[in-house]
Design brief:
343 residues; alpha+beta; de novo design (two linked rop proteins); FAD/NAD(P)-binding domain; three-stranded antiparallel beta sheet; 35% helix; Amino_oxidase
Amino acid sequence: MADSRGHIGRLLSFAVNQNALDQELSATDKTQILQMLTRFGDLGSNYTYTGSSRAGFPGQEDKGSRQRDESLTPRQIEELISEPIWQARLDFFHGLNQQATMLQPVGGMDRIADAFKNQVGSDIQYESIVKEIRKIVNGVRVVYEKSSIMTSLEVDYCVCTIPAPVLKDIPNDFSSEFQQEISNFGYSSAAKLAFQSKRFWEKDHNIYGGISWTDQDITQIWYPSFGFGKSKGILVGAYIWGTTAANSFANQTPQQRITAAMTQGSILHSEYTSEVTHGISVSWLKVPYQMGAYGYSTPNVLLNPDDNIFFAGEHLSILQGWQEGAILSAYNAIDGIVKKDIG
């Protein structure tokens, strides 16, 4: 990142000083943008870039070197622009859903679901499989099966949060445009794998949280952002969302997934195979009532009610794949019901 900013700043400064942008910039603009680019790219005299302390120091990545008078040799721009993974991931952390300051519940993200259960648990029907969703006069009929017993529930409104790959196969009488969008809604085949491990990444490499990228199938290794300094931690050994790699992962046995992730992870960390244990994986493509990790199509008609049936879920939000997106979508459905109910 430091070298990318340095070369971008250097090249743009060169263009400004060669008067290539005179039609866009006034004399005052040129002076100010050169000052900005100097800070942006950590440029030296004459707007050159020869490396930056922002990239760290030799030995720091392995031994926490105390050297502070020698910078890492900068990567040349030809190397940066020819590297596919660097081109594809340079903007990753700028996304709305990848902001640097993000909080998580103590104990894991499922604590949020547990908190909801504690409030409305008595109203939840567990192990109940929806078999039909039907429109009736001024309401909705939902037919579900529990313990081999079929039950019909008639209500004023239905908020349907069933993922589209599952919903499309449930008998219903949705309007044709809703059925079409549900049938065509795309879902990611993303998958994850995690290991328990001694925190070798902290002790041996000074890595505290963050992500390592690789062009192998595992795609990413995520280091825990909590529990710093403890003896063990949970390491995400693979987060795969590329369709080909994710589908291949889905079709492997659990042990094949673990073996592949250990082999690929050892390319990044030589001690990997001797440190990581207790591998566990999930391919959401194989989860029966999910059949995909998250929606990625752009919703249209599903943002509206089909008579008294409202639709909600992460796939219908601006934050697809995130719990916050699911909650925002639920708010939208609730607002729609209130507006419809009060006329």
